[in-house]
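Case 505 in the screening queue. Each case pairs one protein sequence with one candidate compound; here the compound is manganese (II) ion. For every case the pipeline is the same: read the inputs, emit a complex structure as tokens, and attach any notable structural observations.

Predict complex for case 505.
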Amino acid sequence: MPKEFKDFLNSTPHKFTPEQDELLRKAFELAKAAHAGQKRQSGEDYFSHARDAAIILGKIFPDAITLSATLLHDVPEDTKVTLEEIEKELGPEISQLIDGVTQLGHVRMKNSQDKFYVENLRKLFIATSKDIRVILIKLADRLHNMRTIEFIKPEKQAKVATETLEIYAPIAGRLGIGSWKDELEDLSFKIVFPKEYAETKRLLDTELAGRQEGVKLMEKNLSHTLRTEGIKYLEITGRVKRLYSLWKKLQRYGGDLNKIHDFIALRIITKSTSDCYAALGVIHKHFQPVPGRIKDFIATPKPNGYQSIHTTVFGRDGKTFEIQLRTDLMHEEAERGVAAHWFYAEEGKPDTIGRLSANWIKELQSWQEEASNPDEFLESLKIDFFRDRIFVFTPKGDIKDLPQGSTVIDFAFAVHTDLGYHMMGAKINGKMASIFDELDNEDTVEIIKTKKEAVISRDWLKAAKTHNARNRVRHYLVEHDRGIIQRVRELKLKDLSLPRFFRKK
Ligand code: MN
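Case 505 output:
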């Protein structure tokens, strides 16, 4: 076995079967040969990018099929080797995943002023992926690109980092992959908001320097308390809030770090859930809790599956400390999210991974039903309804999110009311079309306007599917009728204003 491949296998925490080893070896060799001679801007061999993306993914989702697809993810687009050849060599499952990644690569952020643009782009991103594994590959790909972003041109850096901050990091968060979300956020924060990044870092470093001793002492006090009370735990670690999430929080608290209780937290990892609650009781007995700061995400997990108990207590120095209690399994899931969940649930049952992936939107839906806080509920709702949604582009590249079965009329009113009222015809993907035509996912629609008001008939009402378009059309029709009645009335009034003798027979 060549050393490079052996190192690759050793980089994942998983022992593959000989068949899986063989599959990975074939994918590895094929990708390496296909990219031969190509260099990255860093001067490294291009293949090192695909390999390192697979190493990143392998740490949280060591699935041989998915990792093979990751190794080959840039091959059809950037080399002479086609998707068909990959399918012939490695089978349809791997080639379909690669195809999904390629398609997802075409979902790009533009400079849009539309206030729903980012949210719609996130939805489109997920709708395009269809398979959870495609998103995992794309996120690993982006994480590696962000880690090596210093090698690309500054203008391009800003674009990639903004897209990462707006689209990729929130999706990693939605899937509960905390470790990826944190890293994606901080890597892009530095590029998108360099001044704010530097300020936040300086603020945090200064504060940390002043508190280091206090944190160490608190850690000692906690472990002493837990041991003397006979509570079992695996470890206590300190964690410092990540810069991007700290900055976001600081904005909500007027920049005052003293108001943020959780910028330093101590994490207690236990073996069992009951040990978590036992530890919580003992901690509250010995350290005075700050009222209203206990959050039990074990009883009520966050929509993305996150579980832990958070509490804030006063230390012996009078300063507050957030304490997070979780089991080692919960910790694992907080870092790896959906990847940990599905992989462990389905290990040994290879055929169910695909089925679960197809159903993953439903999974998100059921998480959302468990959401405790109304804001979280709304947030997660936004992402679930794309099952029966389509995403349609304006000529400028803005995205409109519409229910399935929507027509050109719905689209026009979704872009702008005035556009609907002046619509005469339309082009779908550059071809002339009727305004009554149904739209498909990812159509680009151009509305042809008249200078005058459009002639709106009752047929429009039949063709409109969205509330918005139907209301606008109905409003027009009512006004239109009222206008006629009004004119008739005016005519009658004029009639009435005639001298009496003319009216009388
Ligand atoms: Mn790539």
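Case 505 observations:
- Residues 344-385 have pLDDT under 50 and may be disordered.
- The CA atoms of residues 24 and 249 lie 43 Å apart.
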